[in-house]
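Request: Mind sharing a record?
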Amino acid sequence: PILMQLLVDFLPLLAFFVAYRAFGLYVATGVLMAAMLGVVAYQWLKNRKVSGILLGSTLLVLVFGGITLAFRNPVFIQWKVTVVNWTVAAAFLGSQLLGEKTLTERTMGHAVQLSPSQWRYLNTSWVATFAIIGAINLFVMHNYDLDTWAFFKVWGQIGLVLVVVIVQTLWISKHLPQDNSSG
């Protein structure tokens, strides 16, 4: 289910990239906006609820995408990547500072048993991941052309998140309680 969720989460990025390559930034921005609404609808129909992070991300895509299309200026959709990632980082950090469970534990706690300090460690790694992606986006957008930025927006983000998921999966597997029963 986690891999399926990642695929659904990354579909708007992939749709953006394909539309960007075929039709340019403004069509791709519209496609991204529609794809985000599609993911929200899918999550609602499947679960009868939508995650706060997805709703927030979709709202930011609609606002920044709408401004990009209205003013025909790519800087707004480029900034959206940083704003979304830093907002998600802030949400993970906020869950660690306020509340009984981190966002990571709320997301994965039904499937994995870890100590509170281990949940905080995983949660902190997501804070760092999203903060770093936001910072890299600013660097790429200010130092490279639009094609390079679009490539980073999709493949850089997906690659960095997948690396974190793999590292966290390996880390979790090392820290799970061991079954000492013999059978």
